[in-house]
């Protein structure tokens, strides 16, 4: 569904010229409706914390009709009422108790540019990440051959896998084995507003990394590290008071950890996903193949002049 909307935007240039981003919103909302609907069928007792809410959509509006139409491709016969109920179920406040976390279209800017975006779903249980699924519809296989599109999944303690779209085979994935930071590839956001590119460049230089950063939108960055295509993902906030949203990181973080990598904040603590909608107790994000983690954290501390 997301790719269909993305292709339409590419053909018509629609979303980019509209101040209300409505085609993007249609994709966001319809994907949230679909995932929420399926979760309600399979796990009726579970809460869902999702990025969108019913306030985004007036009953009887053109937007509501468009969301219904798109959702019905996956849930035939879905009524307008059931659509609103599914959307509204995403209002869980988060915390430590068992609940799901969803970002229906992560990386909106990439989505609009016809580039990378992700559909990111995670299960939090007892304050910890328990399971994750990360759809990356535009991501090529690691060898850059063949068709775009992979779904990554992970379950705590069971490892991480990649399934190419259209396939039914899950392939186990692991991070790379790079131990010399100078040989590491590092990735970061395309959007300069989302991470301090210049500070991250200083950290890379301190690590002896000469290759330019690989810039990718959305949680596809986590997938790229998890399958060993890059060794490091840095996300240093531009403003120290910015708090990351839990749905922007939960799924990706578990997939890297289960692929034998590490994901922490700048203090080296695992991301605390139990604080509600925001990663309120985590500052900055450092994701690596594990082997490089301590040396990357040390470089961050040196450049930031802390510790
Ligand atoms: P990325 O594609 O990795 O750059 O991240 C996309 C996500 O960045 C979006 O889902 C937003 O929630 C989030 N975001 C928006 N503003 C900021 C900001 N100032 N700093 C960090 N992340 C942000
Ligand atoms: Mg997002």
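Sequence proposed for the structure above (307 residues):
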């Amino acid at each position: 569904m997301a790719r269909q909307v993305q292709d339409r935007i590419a053909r018509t240039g629609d979303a980019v010229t509209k101040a209300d981003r409505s085609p993007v919103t249609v994709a966001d909302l319809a994907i949230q409706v679909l995932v929420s609907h399926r979760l309600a069928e399979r796990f009726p007792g579970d809460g869902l914390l999702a990025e969108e809410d019913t306030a985004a959509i007036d009953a009887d509006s053109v937007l509501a009709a468009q969301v219904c139409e798109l959702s019905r491709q996956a849930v035939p016969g879905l009524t307008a009422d059931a659509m609103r109920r599914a959307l509204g179920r995403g209002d869980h406040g988060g915390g430590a108790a068992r609940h799901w976390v969803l970002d229906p279209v992560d990386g909106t800017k990439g989505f609009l540019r016809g580039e990378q975006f992700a559909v990111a779903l995670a299960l939090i249980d007892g304050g910890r990440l328990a399971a994750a699924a990360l759809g990356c519809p535009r991501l090529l296989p690691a060898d850059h051959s063949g068709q775009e599109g992979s779904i990554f999944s992970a379950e705590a303690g069971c490892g991480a896998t990649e399934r190419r779209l259209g396939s039914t085979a899950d392939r186990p994935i692991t991070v790379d084995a790079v131990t010399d930071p100078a040989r590491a590839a590092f990735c970061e956001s395309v959007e300069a507003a989302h991470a301090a590119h210049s500070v991250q460049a200083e950290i890379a230089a301190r690590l002896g990394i000469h290759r330019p950063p690989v810039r990718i939108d959305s949680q596809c960055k986590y997938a790229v590290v998890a399958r060993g295509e890059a060794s490091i993902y840095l996300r240093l906030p531009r403003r120290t008071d910015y708090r990351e949203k839990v749905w922007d990181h939960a799924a990706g973080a578990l997939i890297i950890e289960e692929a034998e990598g590490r994901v922490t904040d700048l203090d080296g603590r695992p991301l605390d996903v139990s604080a509600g909608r925001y990663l309120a107790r985590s500052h900055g994000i450092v994701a690596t193949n594990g082997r490089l983690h301590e040396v990357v954290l040390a470089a961050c501390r040196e450049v930031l002049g802390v510790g």
